[in-house]
């Protein structure tokens, strides 16, 4: 029988009552003849609570025990979902990651899935079981320890199962009814997209759109998994939600498909570093060793052999980055001053249409200039343009760009 993967996020399994509602959806697909693999998140708020317990108990926690604790939220919802389905006379069984097994790397708290042997679950389907409920977000390392996949990781569990079982589709049930042109909370003209290309979704996810974990989109793109994002709170139909798919499957699209933002960005500048081979490697090597995720990088033209180096990073990593730079100062690196601005944000426009149409950057800069917004740093890729601007202009910039690129209208 064809296999369908259905993933329910934290708000969709937040109470026994909501689990019942989700189970009814599963029942609809079972009645159509699918063998269903259900991936569940923890009840909403649960993972945060567990992370809090760990931090309270041990500020410099052992990552293996962090995983042991924070993976447990999904165990509860997996068992409850299986029980709920059984109450509906649907043959169902739950699996924790290690039981499948979901084999991962040993990078605790951000492990990657390496393999999901389908044999155990397939054998049970052959015996008449109709639904396998799997705890998302978790797996087992080569050392036999429980691992987790990073926050939001049950999306990745779902896509990995869809790939491993050759599922017809992977439906991600969440509390929004799809992927929007931008965040409807800051732009009331935001429009739900019927389809979005994997690459666009990948950019939007890594730019901070929280609807899918970035790695899940990467996996879906690699294995061409048909991925649908839809609400578990609205009526179900085959057209519901947003389909994340190959760009060939999209007939018409706007040049820009979405405007994304990330609020908590900071900008750091090292003034007057030597302009010679090896300097960038020293700076960004030290930042990387300190676990700082650098995003944009700009090096100024040099004067008399010295230059300024600017980079952006999440605001909560500023202290770490400052420490890393001060640790190498006077040893591997000399600089006049380290200037930090933690009042910036990043706003980006994304669209595969940019590959074939020029002038998008010019238009974006014109829109921002008309609003009197100063651009501090710019970066581009084939399908994305990002700017760093003062945080107080974030909403204004998003709304103005949404208007200028007419994203409220479908192509
Ligand atoms: N429960 C985990 C989290 O909150 C994983 C997930 O829900 O995707 O990050
Ligand atoms: Mg999520």
Automatic annotation (TrEMBL):
The lineage of its organism: Bacteria, Pseudomonadati, Pseudomonadota, Alphaproteobacteria, Rhodobacterales. It holds the Pfam family ACT_9. It is an enzyme of class 2 (transferase). Pathway: Amino-acid biosynthesis; L-threonine biosynthesis; L-threonine from L-aspartate: step 1/5; Amino-acid biosynthesis; L-methionine biosynthesis via de novo pathway; L-homoserine from L-aspartate: step 1/3; Amino-acid biosynthesis; L-lysine biosynthesis via DAP pathway; (S)-tetrahydrodipicolinate from L-aspartate: step 1/4. Belongs to the aspartokinase family. One of its GO terms (cellular component) is cytosol. ATP binds at residues 7-10, 174-175, 180, 185, 210-211. The keyword S-adenosyl-L-methionine does not apply. One of its GO terms (molecular function) is aspartate kinase activity. This is Aspartokinase. Substrate binds at residues 47, 74. Keywords: Amino-acid biosynthesis, ATP-binding, Kinase, Lysine biosynthesis, Nucleotide-binding, Transferase. Residues 268-347, 349-411 form the ACT domain. Its EC number is 2.7.2.4. InterPro entries: AceGlu_kinase-like_sf, ACT-like_dom_sf, ACT_Aspartokinase, ACT_dom, AKii-LysC-BS, Asp/Glu/Uridylate_kinase, Asp_kin_monofn, Asp_kinase. SUPFAM superfamilies: ACT-like, Carbamate kinase-like. It catalyses: L-aspartate + ATP = 4-phospho-L-aspartate + ADP. PROSITE patterns: ACT, ASPARTOKINASE. One of its GO terms (biological process) is threonine biosynthetic process.
